[in-house]
Amino acid sequence: MALYGLTGGIASGKSTVSRMFRELGAHVLDADVIAREVVEPGTPGLAAVAARFPGVLGPDGRLDRAKLGTRVFGDATERAALNAIVHPLVREAFLHKVQALAEQGVERILYDVPLLIETGLHTNMDGVVLVWVPRDVQKARLMSRDGLDEAAAEARLAAQLPLDDKRRYATWIVDNSGDLASTRAQVEQVWQAMLARG
Questions:
Q1: CA atoms of 20 and 187, how far apart (whole Å)
Q2: Which domains does the chain have, with CATH numbers?
Q3: Is CB count within 10 Å lower at the N or C end of the chain?
Q4: Do the annotations mark residue 12 as ligand-binding?
Q5: Per the annotation, does 70 bind a ligand?
Q6: Cα atoms in the Cβ-side hemisphere of radius 13 Å centred on 66
């Protein structure tokens, strides 16, 4: 079974590209979805996060992601503490999902991970797809999408390796700075290349 990484950066359009791959028939595992699953109410993950970051649970007992995000985005130490709790749980859940798909006969999986390169996961992949946009486009989209001012947008961008630095790790680059038709054409080319690899 082949395992491919799909990555990008905040507001690069990775979710759009991920959806396009699904529409073409790809089996996509989303690290963000898995990360939410491992901190659902009643999980050891949520208990560990709540113990390390007091005050991040909402009245319903669920994780208040906005409150947690405010605490970790501007503070590398806090972010590292959160990652130390969540990343091993995500990895374990991911491996279970891969095994289940392999048992179903799935031949290739696309793992959608925002921090694929930052966490070193790209070294275990058979190829990496990078969703890329110029930094000024990325920042403008982030400010518009999340209603952030420039300083807040810069802080979030600084928490990730710049897209230009990720290019050297990519097997394929999808330039998402144009229209959707252009992006879709590139995704189709990448998918055909993956299928051709067997």
A1: 7
A2: 2-196 (3.40.50.300)
A3: C
A4: yes
A5: no
A6: 3
CB 107 within 8 A of CB 2: yes
**13 annotated as a binding-site residue:** yes
Residue 18 marked as a ligand binder: no
Structure tokens at 150: 């420039």
Local confidence band at 198 (pLDDT 50, 70, 90 cut-offs): low
Question: 45: exposed, middle or buried (C-beta count within 10 Å: 0-12, 13-18, 19+)?
Answer: buried
Q: Which of 7, 5, 3, 4 is nearest to 161 (CA)?
A: 7
Annotation-wise, does 7 bind a ligand?
no
pTM: 0.86
Instruction: Tell which residue, 97, 116, 92, 107, has the closest CA to residue 171.
Output: 116
SS3 call for 86:
helix
- What the block records as the tokens of 5 is 């990484």
Q: How far is CA 47 from CA 32, 57, 66, 73, 78, in A?
A: 19, 10, 18, 21, 17
Region 52-62 average pLDDT: 94
| Number of Cβ within a 10 Å radius of residue 168 | 8
Give 68-110 pLDDT, tens digit per residue. Answer: 988 998 788 999 999 899 989 999 999 999 999 999 999 999 9
